[in-house]
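Quick one: structure for this chain?
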Amino acid sequence: MVVTASQAPLNNADDLSTTKWSVFSNPTSHILGFPVLDDPLAEDTTLPAFMVSTSRGFLPRADPLVPLPPEFSALESLLERMPIQTASGSPGLLATGSLGSEIDNNVLPNLAAHIPKYKHNHYVLNALYRDYSFIASAYLLEPCHMRWLEGQRYGLGRQELPECISIPIAEVAKLTGFQPFMEYAGSYALYNYKLIDPSKPLAYDNLNLIRAFESGLDRSSSEAGFVLVHVDMVKESGGLVKGALQVLQGCENGDRDNLRTGLDGMLVALRRVNKAMDGMWKKSKPGDYNGFRTFIFGITSQSMFPNGVLYRGVSSTPLNFRGESGANDSMIPLVDNLFQIRMPDTPLTEILRDFRKYRPGNHRQFLEHVYARSEALGVQEHCLDHTDPEATVKYLLCLDQVREFRWRHWCFTREYILKKTNHPTATGGSPIVTWLPNQLGAVLALMRQVLMRLDEWSVNSAEVEKVREVVDRQSDRLAKEVEKYCRERGVEHGEL
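Got it. Here's what it folds into:
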């Protein structure tokens, strides 16, 4: 049975009908019933900004829009003055904790009346969503950041959003299919970069941020590095998508050559993603992270918002949304769904399911489709066919890249968060100690099963033995580290 993602509130942008596609001239590869773009159709502003493609993967179809249209100059001006360190290097509003008072004193008018003019231009809508989510998070969490600077606990954030923010963000969220709160893809990370030289390709050295909370407009800063490393990783996702489609085609048609080619393509892409991810250590320093982390917390399961947040003019009751998190990226969930990596039946896995609604609608649909097709075709058993041990080894090596990704993410959590703060939840609202080990443990368990299969077939090689050694070593180390941090923080180990 397919587990469908919860539908986002205020969302009418998910219905991508087949009629819509018929107007194009071969823009897509209809792989087992799902339209995946080959040409991202970058000039077409009427389509959602985020649509899966074999060329750009999970990046937006075109580089993000900057600046905003002139009707939104007041919002643009406020965003430019907002960061702790502005583009000029001078202190901004968040440096003195004065953003909230500016907004409360009506510096920002309610610009919602201008939004319908752009209802068919998704690049403008997505830029507006990005920018209103930055203002919303900064407004709500500014008091928490000021307390953190003084060495205090976060305390309470602002418990209400004024209409000049709540109404416009609700409207653009409805039109774009996002939640009316900051998300990883649609706002903070994947729609928040610009090319320094538009004539050159998308590469880390040619990227800068559009918006920032702390000092991210300086591309040498840790905030810039934190975001841009994610963009650098996701730029490799086109190869991952293409390889996944080949795996599905190979299983559908009984074409083992195509299956192995798809696995090879995924392995290459995953290695590139991991290489880019490893750059985080140098580009975003562990000691700097908490200087901007406060602003990317969500509402759900956070002590700063015990009763939710009231969106004035939008809802008569407080609302709850999770914060932006790299866990909302679509690359590793694609591999999970395709390779049928089973997660344990725990409350932590329920949080993983809840995260699904914090992705672009087309990404959610694609991941659900891959899950359904993989279940129907039995992709895992195709990869573990005893007549084709070569495919099984390739499958194992891909799993090993997922393990490496999740292990590095755990190491980031340990060095950037667990050693720096006692706050019990991650930005997305998941338990900080047990959340990542829940998924990492599932990958390690599956890898042990695959290794047992290879042992039964007497298949051995240096690369298989290397994987076995890493699985044994990291399984033991993970258990010890989780036990250590659970004990130190008074967390029940049974939550893992």
